Amino acid sequence: MLFAPIAPLGSYARSGSRRPSLHSFERFLDEVMRVPTQGGQTLQQDEKAYTLRFDMPGISREQLKVSIEDAVVRIDTAPEAARQYRGAYELPQVIDASASTATLENGVLTLQLVKLQPVSRATTLTVQ
């Protein structure tokens, strides 16, 4: 699976393992993002956006909920849906939710997630 589900911080402490660093996760994504994943999920990216595709056969638009908070994308199905799905994925860059789109066509959920470009808050001081 390409995506790393978000695990609560406590799960690492209980298991005795270290929490993976963001740097290693970014390297992993850089290597794996070029290749479609198994299990009906793919991830592609360019300089402006991520494109995620999920196979969701038998699910209607009304039964899907997609939410974005910073760099975290959550996908949930309604309790009455024929197929249950619940996932949360953290991407390496904050997502612009207002410019992003989600479409469901022929059983394939496509998320076009626009990367939020960081704004520099640097100030130049005059040397006296």
How would you describe the overall organization of this protein?
The protein is α+β, with helices and mostly antiparallel strands. Helices cover 14% and strands 32% of the residues. It has two helices and seven strands. The strands form two sheets. It has a four-stranded antiparallel β-sheet, with no helix packed on it. The longest helix has 11 residues, at 22-32. The model is unreliable at 7-17 and 34-38 (pLDDT under 50).
Quick summary:
This protein is of the alpha+beta class and 128 residues long.
Distance between the first and last residues' Cα: 57 Å
Proportion of residues in helical segments: 10-25%
| Rg from Cα | 18 Å
> Can you write the helix and strand succession as a string?
HHEEEEEEE
Total helical segments? 2
- Measured by DSSP, the beta-strand proportion falls in 25-35%
The main sheet comes to:
4 strands, antiparallel
The geometry reads as elongated
Structural class: alpha+beta
The poorly predicted ranges are: 7-17, 34-38
Number of strands: 7
Task: Give the strand order, joined by hyphens, for the main sheet.
Answer: 1-2-7-6
Mean pLDDT: 78
Keywords summarizing the entry:
elongated; alpha+beta; 32% strand; 2 helices; 128 residues
